[in-house]
Amino acid sequence: MSKMKKIFSVVSSLTVLLTLGACSSDAESSESGEASDESKGTVGIAMPTQSAERWIADGNNMVEQLEEKGYETILQYGEDDVQNQVSQIENMITRGIDYLVIASIDGSALTNVLEMADAEDIDVIAYDRLMMNSDYVDYYVTFDNFGVGVLGGEYIEEELNLAEGDGPFNIEMFGGSPDDNNAVINYDGYMSVFQEYIDNGQLVIPSGQTEFNQIATLRWDAATAQERMDNLLSAQYTDKVLDAVYSPYDPISLSIIASLKGIGYGSDDKPLPVITGQDATTPSVKSVIAGEQDSTIFKDTRLLGNSTVMVIEALENGEEPEVDDTETYDNGNIIVPTILQEPVIVDQSNYQEILIDSGYYSEEDLK
Ligand code: BGC
Which of 108, 195, 249, 330 has the most CB atoms around its CB within 10 Å? Predict the structure, then answer.
């Protein structure tokens, strides 16, 4: 943060303290009341939805860490309504904030509001999802999303013994939301594993749907995915068996399982296909334990929160935050300096160690 920006920030943060005092009844905000250190700024946190466990954990975790360090916080959820998120961010800017942490709903819909943030000298951090087509994204804190796709793809490769030459197997793939850059990177990751097996015939896709736009799921919506699975099963699988499904998100995995069970999969003579997931949500980890969903990807939101707080603390102290990557994350306008965390694949063999022994979930959470 430049000196000028810093001075501006301190002044604006004092203004915010006064303003926030008058706004404490806002039901959608989580505000810390009194800051323990008045010299620290206010952080606006815009999250996409409370309908998914992970975003609730992300939001709460950041608020807790930031407030402990003496920041004010405003946490709001856009509930997957793009215009709602735009208004929430505008509102935060008007109220006066110093830092903006955004997990976008539609990564390309925030160009105007980010310009507004820049005009107010607010530092903008893209959280997990990259905001596209804007010069005004200062840092990006995320998991290796290509790696997420590779991990899920390699899980299927291993379960089906593809490297040893087994096959052919029938597989269908699902993608995440087309307005979320992560969904595209995730697709590139698993296709980098599957492509050679599709080309040599070990993997067969009876629906023929292999392009991202054919398999994408708007807003990662589980009901939309279930409808697509129902259609695929009735159109392609009356006389074929489905061996594997790449699912990019746990709630989608569970809806795929529901659809499959509806036509008799999940019995001894017709086992469920290999099914992946993402986020290690409790319903899906329970499904993994029960032997239905096969794997999920654990993204430790505590680490993402730590990285975000690290960036804010560095900026607050007038220092350059340490980043891992200054080449890869091109948002169409600029390459955004990025801090990366590693995703971990979880299945029956390691959920105890990765999720319970690490303190992320208790035994009780997974009962
Ligand atoms: C995140 C995933 C999440 C998905 C749906 C993506 O941007 O990277 O972790 O499962 O959104 O909420």
Answer: 249
Query: Would you say 284 and 250 are in contact if contact means Cβ atoms under 8 Å apart?
Result: yes
Q: Where are the domains of the chain?
A: 7-137+300-341, 145-299
Reported as a pLDDT band with limits 50, 70 and 90, residue 23 is very low
For residue 67 and ligand 1, the question of a CB distance below 6 A is answered with: no
For ligand 1, atom 9: residue with the closest CA: 279
Query: What pLDDT score was predicted for residue 171?
Result: 98
Dihedrals phi, psi of 206, to nearest 5 degrees: -55, -35
Name the CATH topology of 7-137+300-341. Rossmann fold (3.40.50)
Q: Answer whether 7-137+300-341 and 145-299 agree in fold.
A: yes
Closest atom of ligand 1 to 249 CA is: 10
Helix ranges (H only) for 317-346 are none
The C-alpha angle 215, 186, 66, rounded to 5 degrees, equals: 125
Q: Cis ω on the peptide bond leading into residue 168 (within 30° of 0)? A: yes
pLDDT digits (tens, 9 = 90+) for 30-67: 444 444 445 699 999 999 999 988 999 999 999 999 99
Q: Quick check: helix, strand or coil at residue 48?
A: coil
What is the whole-number distance in angstroms between the Cα of residue 52 and the centre of ligand 1?
Answer: 9
Percentages of the chain per state (helix, strand, coil), in multiples of 5: 45, 15, 40
What are the structure tokens assigned to 62, written together?
């950041």
Task: Pick 145-299's CATH classification: 3.90.1640.30, 3.40.50.2300, 1.10.3470.10, 3.40.50.1820.
Answer: 3.40.50.2300
Is the C-beta atom of 12 inside 6 A of ligand 1? no
Closest-CA residue, ligand 1 atom 6, reads: 182
The set of residues, in sequence order, having a beta carbon less than 8 Å from that of 317 and lying 6+ positions away, is none
Judging by beta carbons within 10 Å of its beta carbon (0-12, 13-18, 19+), is residue 94 exposed, middle or buried?
Answer: exposed
Using a cut of 0.85, tell me whether the model's pTM lies above it.
yes
pLDDT tier at 6, thresholds 50, 70, 90: very low
